[in-house]
Amino acid sequence: MPKVKRSRKPPPEGWELIEPTLEELDQKMREAETDPHEGMRKAEALWPIFRIHGQKSRYIFDLFYKRKAISRELYEYCLKEKIADANLIAKWKKTGYENLCCLRCIQTQDTNFHTNCICRVPKSKLEEGKIVECVNCGCRGCSG
């Protein structure tokens, strides 16, 4: 299978350290895209894709901001090549959004009452024993 096309500019130093993990996540993404989704709801078929996309972005975010294991040049290369989601990472840097699962959960125009997704409600404010599942991405609570 051909590799994903990247820009003609070669990747910066340190790419060989993160490439195996990114290739593994790309392989998981391809499997998630080709998995059969008969018997699932329309939105439910996309949940694995959202999870893997978030994993990839979280991996790059953690390497740069938490562990400081990659250079700014490599980080910006990953954002420019759309390996990681720059908008999602920007939200993770803000207070209260550290565990955000996807951007659709905070978009108010996608909901019936123009509020955040149910997974953004703290578990302490919900009824006890009630299982909450996001319609958009399948998250079970990313507010904390």
Structure described in brief:
This protein is 39% helix and 0% strand.
- The secondary-structure class comes to mainly alpha
N- and C-termini, Cα separation? 40 Å
Largest sheet: none
The helix-strand sequence is: HHHH
Shape, principal axes of CA atoms: globular
Radius of gyration: 17 Å
Number of domains: 2
Beta-strand content estimate: under 5%
Low-pLDDT ranges: none
Percent helix among the residues?
25-40%
Overall pLDDT score: 89
- The count of β-strands is 0
Number of helices: 4
Keywords:
39% helix; mainly alpha; 2 domains; 4 helices; 0% strand; globular; 144 residues
Protein model, in words:
The chain has 144 residues and is mainly α. The chain folds into two domains: 15-93; 96-144, no CATH class. 39% of the residues lie in helices and 0% in strands. It has four helices and no strands. The chain has helices spanning 15-34, 47-66, 72-80, 86-92. Helix 1 (15-34) packs antiparallel against helix 2. The protein is globular, with a radius of gyration of 17 Å.
List the topology elements.
Elements: H1 15-34, H2 47-66, H3 72-80, H4 86-92
